[in-house]
Amino acid sequence: MSDRTAKDVIGLDRDDLAALLAKIGEKPFRVKQLWHWLYHQGATDFSLMTSLGKNLRQSLQGGFIAGRPEIARDQQSVDGTRKWLLGFDDGNEAETVYIPDMDEEGGALCVSTQVGCTLTCRFCHTGTQLLVRNLEPHEILGQFMAARDALGEWPTPTDATRKISNVVVMGMGEPLFNYDALKKALLILMDNEGLAMSRRRITVSTSGVVPMIPKLGEETGVNLAISLHAVTDDLRDRIMPINKKYPLAQLMNACRNYPGLSNARRITFEYLMLKGLNDSLADAKELLRLVKDIPAKFNLIPFNPWPGAPFETPSLDSVKRFSDYLFEQGYSAPIRRPRGQDILAACGQLRSESVRERQSLAKARREAGILEEPHAPASSD
Ligand code: SAH
Ligand code: SF4
C-alpha cells in the first residue's frame, strides 16, 4: 500500500511531470529520463533511477511514490486465467483479469474503469454492485502495471514476446462514463517510449454511451467494441437501461461514423446470448440488417451465470447455429469460450465487495443521465 501523504507520479502525463519537476527546480529534459524509468523499466524505487542525478532522486524519494494498487487477492484458474482483486488507497477495490491465449504466446488484460457501475444491465454481475466511484488515471494504469509486475514483464518487451499483448477495457464499469481518466490512462499506455501498447491492440467496450463514441475514436484511435446484446429496442430497453437514453438507431449511427473503420479495422459487436430471448435465427438475420453498412465482426458470448441471475444460457447447439449463420453470411462470429469460470473471472462475473448505500446510487445514476423506473438490483449474496 502506498504512503498516502506522498504524491503518486504514476498517471501523470509528460506535461504534468514537467510541471512537477519545474516546481522542484529541475530541468525539462529530466521528464524523458523519469518517464523511461517509470514506464519502460517499471521501476518503483527512485533511489535506483541512476540517470536522474542525486538531488532529484532524493527530492522524489522525499515526497513522491511510483505507486501500484495493492494486490488484495490473486486467483488462478485451472485454465491459466488469473484474476487480481486490487485495493486502492481509500480501501475501494476493483478486479483485473489476465486471459492467456490458448494457442499462442501472449494474452489479454481486462481492466476496470469504475468500482461497480451506474448502469444496471440485468445480466451483469457488476451491475448488481452499487457504484462507489470512478477510477483515477493512476488506478486504471496501475492495473496494467501491477499485472506486469506479477507476470515479471519489465522492462517493456518488444511486441513479439509480450505476455500482455492486448488490453481490453471490459472489466468493471462503463469506460465512457469515466472518459477523461480513461483517455489519460490510454494515452500514457500508448506512449512509445514507455508502456508502448499499440492502439490497434487496445479495445474499449461500451454499453452505448453515444455522445462519447466519436471522441474516443478521434482522441485515442483505439478499437471499439459495443455490448449490443439485443436487436430490438424493446428487448434492449428491458435488459440494458442505457438503451432508453440512446436507442439502437443512434447507437448504430455513432458506430457507422467511428473514425478509421475499414475492413481490416472493424467494430466488434459483443452479443450476449440469453436462452429464448435473443438466440433465434430471426435474431441473427436482424443483427445483420442492423450492421449492414458498418465494418463489423461479432463476438458471441453465451450468458455466464452468477448466483441469482434471472437468465439462462442457451444450448451450445443454438449458439452454434447462430454463429454458423453469421459465418455463412461472411462475418467473423466466434463463440467466446468462458474463461476462468471457476474463479468468477469471466465476462460479467466481476464484482468486488465495495458497496455503497442506495441513495448514492440513485444520485450517481442521475449524474450519469440514466433515467429509469426504480427497481431492486438482483443481489448475489
Ligand atoms: N460496461 C462496458 C464494459 C464492460 S464489458 C460494457 O458493458 O460494454 C463486459 C462485457 O461482458 C460486456 O459486453 C457485458 O455485456 C458482458 N457481460 C455482462 N454480464 C455478462 C454475463 N453474465 N455473461 C456474459 N457476458 C456478460
Ligand atoms: Fe455496467 Fe457494462 Fe455491466 Fe452494463 S454490462 S452493468 S454497462 S459493466
For the structure shown, list the relevant keywords.
binds iron/sulfur cluster, DNA polymerase, domain 1, two-stranded parallel sheet, single chain, 9-stranded mixed sheet, 2 domains, 381 residues, TIM Barrel, disordered C terminus, elongated, binds S-adenosyl-L-homocysteine, 13 strands, alpha/beta, 32% helix
Provide a compact summary of the structure.
By secondary structure, the protein is α/β, with parallel strands linked by helices. The protein contains twelve helices and 13 strands.
Task: State the domain count.
Answer: 2
**What are the secondary-structure elements, in order, as H or E?**
EHHHEEEEEEEHEHEHEHHHEHEHH
Task: Output the number of helix runs.
Answer: 12
Report mean pLDDT, rounded to a whole number: 89
Radius of gyration equals: 21 Å
Characterize the main sheet.
Answer: 9 strands, mixed
Task: Give the CATH level 1 class of the largest domain.
Answer: Alpha Beta
Could you tell me the CATH topology label of the largest domain: TIM Barrel
Coarse structural class: alpha/beta
- In CATH terms, the superfamily of the largest domain is Aldolase class I
The number of E-state strands comes to 13
Shape: elongated
CATH architecture level-2 label of the largest domain? Alpha-Beta Barrel
Helix proportion range? 25-40%
Distinct small molecules: S-adenosyl-L-homocysteine, iron/sulfur cluster
How are the strands ordered across the major sheet?
3-4-5-6-9-10-11-12-13
Q: Report strand %.
A: 15-25%
